[in-house]
Structures are given as C-alpha cells and as structure tokens.
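[SOLVED] Predicted holo structure with S-adenosylmethionine

Edit: marking solved, answer below. Original request kept for reference. I posted the sequence and ligand SMILES and asked for the 3D complex as structure tokens.
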Amino acid sequence: MSYGELCTRFYDLDKPHAPELALEWFSARLPQGRILEPMCGSGRFLLPLLQQGRSVDGLDASEAMLRACSARLAAAGIAHASPWRAEDYARCRLWLQGLDSLALPVTDYAAAFIPSSSFCLLADPAPALRRLAAHLAPGGLLLLEFEPPHEAPAPPAETTRTVHKGAEQIRLVMRHEYDAQARVEHYFNQYELKRSGRVVQTETETLRLQCYSPQELRALLEANGFADAGIEHAGFGWCASATRYMLV
Ligand SMILES: C[S@@+](CC[C@H](N)C(=O)[O-])C[C@H]1O[C@@H](n2cnc3c(N)ncnc32)[C@H](O)[C@@H]1O
C-alpha cells in the first residue's frame, strides 16, 4: 500500500503548499485551455492554479490522496466533481485512476503536468506516457519534473520525522537506499499515529523511484507519443517539456 491514509495526513502537514519556484515554472508554461494534473496527490498544485482561474482536472491512483484533494478544494470554496461529489462542475474534475491504464472521457486536454518527480514513481512509464498522449489534443503540451541519477553512491540511511496536529502526532521512519547500478531510490516508510500519547494506527509503504538522465528521458518521451522534448535544469529541479505528436 502506498500513499494511504496516514501517508496522506503526514504529507499534508509536512508539505502543505507547492514549492513557489516550481509552481511559478509550471504556471508560466501552461497554455490556456483545459489542463490535466496526473498524480495530483492532495492538490497542493491544483488549488493555486484553480485559484488563478484556470480549468484543471486532477488524477490520482490513491483514494486517500484524492479524498484529501477534494476536501482541500471544498475548504477553499472551489466547486468540483469527484468520485464522491456528484456536482458536475466544468472547471475541475477529480479522477480516481492509475496513469498506466488511463481512460478518461476527456481526450483533448491542452496540457498535462506532473510536478514533484512523481513521474519517477511509475514502474512502467512507456504505457503511461502513451495513455497520457492519447488524452491530449494534437500538439498538447506535457511538462514534468524528474530525478536525475545520483552523482555519488549513497549508503542506506534512516531518518525519523514527526508532525503534529492538536493532540495527534504522526511519526515517519523512512529507510532510504539507492541502487546505483539500476539508478533506483527505494524508500521503506513506517507511519505511526499517536493520539494523546497512545499509538492508534500504523501504516507501512514502499516506494520505488526511477532516476533518468536527460538523454534517457528525452528518448523515452520521443518513443512514446511525444516530440520536441526539451530538458532544462529549472532551479528547483530537472524538468522536461514535450508535445503530443500522434494518436496512440
Ligand atoms: C509525491 S506525491 C505528489 C503529489 C503532488 N504532485 C504534490 O506535489 O503534492 C505522488 C502521487 O502520485 C500518485 N501515484 C503514484 N503512482 C500513480 C499511478 N500509477 N497513477 C496515478 N497516480 C499515482 C500517488 O498516489 C501520489 O498521490
């Protein structure tokens, strides 16, 4: 289980807002028209873009993350349609789906964007890119942030962090390993929710993050429905842009 309930609660207390530089970078490049944010999580990028007046749909495979996203939008007064809110509102729809098997009724998005290196979580990125291309209008833009391979091998490490809300605290013990040969980061995470000092819920998750060199990512994009792939180091991280070139 990944991005479950405790992970979502920890994430929202730990990272409540989108990093400013990243938000600016994506916002400045997104065209007018309907936009899709695959792997949107609990909506820390989605909300400010909607508040700018844009039309943005969010998509995520985690029910916990998408419920938190729906709650975040509702708290900000943003009407939206989701698997749990039947309201048919044109400016934002939330989809509970995996990117790998994406099948939406909308297939003419002007752009899609995937921040926070979430793209690197995909175990099989080629079919996901082809499904994504099939949901963009011809010439539609894809923007994504990715993680490059580490320059030096890193020994396994363990870190512990705790976040608080009222009488509750959530502790995350994160074990991190880097496989330098496969260029894969592995995370073994354990969450523990304490209420008034007593452990009331626990959750474990494993995450696998594939790192890409700029050349590899360009080739991956261009082999799976995208053209004109450009790669840049954008201050906050490495980013790629490409346009959809064919029906797949
Ligand atoms: C690191 S979070 C980032 C969320 C958001 N972009 C942000 O910056 O806050 C990664 C998200 O990707 C989602 N995810 C992972 N694999 C997925 C897949 N195959 N299809 C759709 N969503 C996926 C997770 O559920 C999680 O919400």
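OP edit: The first helix runs from residue 5 to 14. Thanks to everyone who chimed in.
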